């Protein structure tokens, strides 16, 4: 466990006050999809997704001072996201929810009514992470799947903003008035959205508010952000940017690396393969890029000084972690900020333990505040 901050961290970062850095949003992650472990690939009854376990992660994030919590969604995994979010709403005082939805699993007007109701319950502390997923039992090629997603996003935003929809699209054909409840304050929640394929990038440029990236090298991050700015400008829009990554923070770099090694010390390769392949989204451009990062990593799994790809051996999707002491983690997050990142969605294993460590030893040094639709 981390002891109190060392003098080198305090002296340097207290002098370089967080107020001298741009503000950013800092979020944590609640493991609704059966993906909480002490040892990757080794299920633990105490860490299985349940109402109690995932609720406690969320309440811990609020107590720790995070701005927001991501509630993920997986068709065959864990808990239903919208039902869980509705249960959490009356228990929270300031934490915002980033609630994942899988496009097409719910008829768009009904999805709008669900979101509007939840947004009212949270008094505007709700935004949506939109996943362009295959529907259970079907497979759709990337390009048409993202065309379906774009239609869905446009319909959802209109209804949540109080506008009627009359559409004769490729996938949606109907005419409806908006539900009586719209987004809180008459505005749609922010749409967070990610993806690396050509179709995904164009969908984000046309309809997202916050473009989310999974882990990459600093050079890779800069390249993607530059590309997305150009794409958004072609649509007459501006994007905000967010970064989804795991963290392992300890008192020293050596201890952090030791903790990373321990995390995968009981991982069987076949178990890792099963975990990676159980998701409906197991083969996407983003997932393949995470695999490519692992292939480029050194013998210990590091593709960049503190960017460790070992987590991706037993996880589909976000497959790397920042591993280091508090000042190393803080410095890397600030480097991402300098490239244009305004939001961070973090997690670690086990989620409650790592949430507390980050909250006590890194979060106080970040100038953070949640992104808002009301700016």
Describe what is shown at a glance.
The protein is an alpha/beta fold and 375 residues long.
List keywords for this structure.
375 residues, alpha/beta, TIM Barrel, eight-stranded parallel beta barrel, two-stranded antiparallel sheet, 17% strand, disordered N terminus
CATH topology of the domain at 21-244 and 336-365: TIM Barrel
Average pLDDT figure: 91
The largest β sheet comes out as: 8 strands, parallel, barrel
What's the quaternary structure here? single chain
Instruction: Return the string of H and E elements.
Output: HEHEHEHEHEEEHEHEHHHEEEHEH
Report on this structure.
Strand 5 and strand 6 form a beta hairpin. The radius of gyration is 20 Å and the shape is globular. It is of the alpha/beta class and 375 residues long. The protein is 39% helix and 17% strand. The longest helix is centred in the middle third of the chain and has 19 residues. It is built from twelve helices and 13 strands. The protein starts with 6 loop residues before the first helix and ends in a 14-residue tail after the last helix. It has a domain of 254 residues: Alpha-Beta Barrel (TIM Barrel), CATH 3.20.20. The N terminus is likely disordered. The strands form two sheets. It has an eight-stranded parallel barrel, surrounded by eight helices. Strands 5-6 form a two-stranded antiparallel ribbon.
């Amino acid at each position: 466990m981390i002891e109190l901050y060392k003098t080198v961290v305090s002296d340097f970062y207290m002098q370089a006050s967080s107020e001298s850095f741009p503000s950013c949003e800092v979020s944590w992650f609640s493991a609704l999809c059966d993906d909480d472990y002490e040892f990757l690939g080794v299920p633990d009854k105490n860490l299985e997704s349940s109402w109690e376990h995932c609720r406690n992660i969320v309440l811990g994030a609020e107590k720790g001072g995070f701005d927001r919590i991501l509630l993920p969604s997986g068709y065959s995994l864990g808990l239903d996201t919208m039902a869980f979010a509705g249960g959490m709403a009356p228990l929270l005082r300031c934490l915002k929810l980033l609630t994942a939805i899988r496009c097409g699993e719910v008829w768009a007007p009904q999805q709008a009514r669900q979101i509007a109701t939840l947004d009212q319950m949270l008094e505007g502390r709700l935004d949506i992470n939109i996943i362009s997923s295959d529907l259970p039992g079907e497979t759709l090629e990337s390009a048409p799947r993202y065309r379906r997603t774009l239609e869905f996003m446009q319909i959802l935003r209109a209804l949540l903003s109080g506008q009627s929809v009359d559409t004769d699209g490729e996938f949606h054909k109907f005419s409806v008035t908006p539900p009586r409840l719209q987004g809180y304050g008459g505005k749609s929640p922010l749409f967070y959205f990610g993806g690396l394929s050509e179709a995904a990038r164009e969908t984000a440029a046309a309809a997202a508010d916050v473009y989310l990236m999974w882990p990459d090298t600093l050079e890779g991050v800069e390249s993607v952000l530059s590309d997305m700015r150009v794409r958004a400008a072609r649509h007459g829009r501006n994007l905000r940017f967010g970064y989804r990554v795991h963290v392992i923070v300890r008192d020293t770099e050596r201890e952090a690396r030791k903790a990373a090694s321990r995390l995968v010390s009981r991982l069987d390769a076949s178990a890792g393969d099963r975990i990676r392949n159980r998701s409906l989204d197991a083969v996407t451009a983003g997932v393949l890029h995470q695999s490519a990062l692992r292939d480029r990593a050194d013998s210990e799994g590091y593709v960049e000084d503190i960017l460790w790809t070992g987590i991706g051996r037993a996880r589909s999707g976000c497959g790397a972690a920042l591993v280091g002491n508090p000042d190393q983690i803080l410095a890397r997050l600030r480097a991402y900020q300098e490239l244009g990142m305004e939001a961070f969605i973090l997690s670690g294993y086990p989620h409650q333990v790592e949430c507390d460590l980050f909250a006590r030893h890194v979060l106080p040094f970040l100038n953070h505040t949640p992104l808002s639709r009301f700016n």
